[in-house]
Amino acid sequence: RHCAARHATSSFSEMGDQQNEAVMHQVQAELANAYAQEFFTTVREKCFEKCVPKPGTSLSSGEQTCIAKCTDRYVDATRAISNVVLQAYSQGQGGGMQ
Predict the structure, then answer these.
(1) Exposed/middle/buried for 78, CB within 10 Å: 0-12, 13-18, 19+?
(2) How many Å apart are CA 51 and CA 66, to the nearest integer?
(3) Would residue 25 be called left, alpha or beta, if left means φ above 0 and alpha means ψ between -120 and 50 degrees?
(4) pTM for this structure?
(5) DSSP class per residue in 57-90
(6) What is the reported pLDDT for 6?
(7) Chain segment 6-35, per-residue pLDDT in tens
(8) Residues contacting residue 71 through CB under 8 Å, at least 6 positions apart
(9) Handedness of CA 52, 56, 59, 62 (dihedral sign)
(10) Cβ(70)–Cβ(47) under 8 Å?
């Protein structure tokens, strides 16, 4: 009897772990989506403000080039920052980061 109860408790615990993991994956996906939306909104606003001083019905080739380069710089900077943060975290230095 005790063995059966332990097995049932173990199965229940594993099911709870699976549900927790599924919830964590869902939360991570939602956070990633929110981060991506915020990132692209910021880039769009900053680059548009910088590169299109007088909005018209279309972008000039210079404005298009400026926006492309500006966006690339934001992407590169974000990637570099992410790499540094991930490296620090993986080396155990991320415990105190907020």
Answers:
(1) middle
(2) 6
(3) alpha
(4) 0.57
(5) SS--HHHHHHHHHHHHHHHHHHHHHHHHHHHHHH
(6) 52
(7) 555 555 556 677 888 888 888 888 888 888
(8) 43, 47
(9) negative
(10) yes
